[in-house]
Amino acid sequence: MNCIKQFFLAICFSLAITCQDHVLVGGTTTRDIIVPKISEWQVTVVNGLTTGETLFIHCKSKEDDLGEISLNFRDRFSWNFGENMLHSTLFWCYMSKDDGYMNVKVFWDDVILFHRCGWKNCIWTAKSDGLYLWNLANGEDVLSEKWEVGW
């Protein structure tokens, strides 16, 4: 009998997770109730291209498309979100400059990333040779991804 109960609960849980997300009162969604957020985060992308180039970014997750944004030198774009209990929150960005581009993850479930971000704020800076993550623990930028040539 226990196997039948476990099987039934597993099916109910699977259906609950895959159900369509509905917005409830106060901006809470059914997904927030089924898979609660366990920590609040902020991701920031900074244009540190000293050549004066515009940085084009398009960031998204499975649920959210943050749109296409052009950043001038020293401009920044930030967004806040809550990591879910399943540790499946993932954000990635397409970035391009005059002579290069990259597709890069900017947030994922990783203890090293969390440590570098001080467990709350990931700051990515695009520079002429690549994308750097500010390592709060060491107080320095760390090269994470190099530009690919072209568009």
UniProtKB/TrEMBL annotation:
Record keywords, A-Z: Secreted, Self-incompatibility, Signal
Signal peptide: 1-18
GO BP, one annotated term: rejection of self pollen
Localization in the cell: Secreted
GO cellular component: extracellular region
Statement: the UniProt record of this protein carries the keyword Zinc-finger: no
Keyword Metal-binding: no
Major location (coarse): secreted
InterPro entries, per the entry: Self-incomp_S1 (IPR010264)
Family: Belongs to the plant self-incompatibility (S1) protein family.
Protein's name according to its UniProt entry: S-protein homolog
Record organism: Arabidopsis lyrata subsp. lyrata (Lyre-leaved rock-cress)
